[in-house]
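We modelled the chain as a single entity of 291 amino acids. Its sequence is:
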Amino acid sequence: MLLGYSYNNTATVASSFTYALEVGSSTTGIVLKNCIMRAPGAALLIYGGPVTVINCLCLPATMMVYSVPTEISINTVRIQSAGIATFYNSLFIAGSGGTGFTSSGTVTAINCYASGSTSYGNSGTLNLTTSASADTSGSTGLQSIAYSTVNFTSVTAGSENFALTSGSSLIGAGTNEYSTFTTDIIGTPRQSSGAWDVGSFAYNSGGYPNYAVCSTCSFTTLASAISDIATNHAVLTNPVTVNISGTWASADTTSVSITGITTTATNTLSIYTSGSAVHPGYFQMRPLIIG
């Protein structure tokens, strides 16, 4: 199982070869759970399998277009013809002009949500169970559900919050999968009986824990980000995401030791750079390739 994997591909050019996670042809039986993946080409590419994906966020990269933060992706999730995958309660959010989910393989999607110029694009075998879409490609009764703050807490490029709003059409619209898994992406218990919510977050009327916790959430060096987390959140009680911002004139090659921070299987630390923080001469971080 790959638990809590987080990768932000900061490539400055959108191409079909810029991934956050690539699952190859020799891979079988892998489980991805509570993962967050961003890339301008495809956040997740699968051409092997079977693969099981639970509570994952597959997102576009945020790039500066005419000085405006813009989300870019070609196909946020791409399944090739040999790919076999089952998705539970995952989000496929497309960037400008992109497709949320495209498949020529064999895929089942349960309690998922997709957005894009085409939310679910399919030329293979696609079985949807209570999976919603921003267009008309989703499950019956869960079509044309807007990717907006009507349904999600924030959809602002680069600082999204996919916790469901109190009036979200995704609340109670899903299928109960308690026999398969029991919590959402941040560890909130899912109910053992009754209809589940669609998406990676189970709706919590009492409010969600802040899953992007730090004093400023914006730093110019990796060392200062680690120092802030160690000082203010030494024992992580929920996943923490830190954005390294600002324009760097050159690569930061300073060694940094991550000490004084206690993580668990569900309480994790993720660090990424915004598009503006990428050195101009830097093209692409290498994604994780499995198989």
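As a brief sanity check on the tokenised model: The chain is about 5% helix and 35% strand. Residues 12-16, 63-73, 208-216, 275-291 have pLDDT under 50 and may be disordered.
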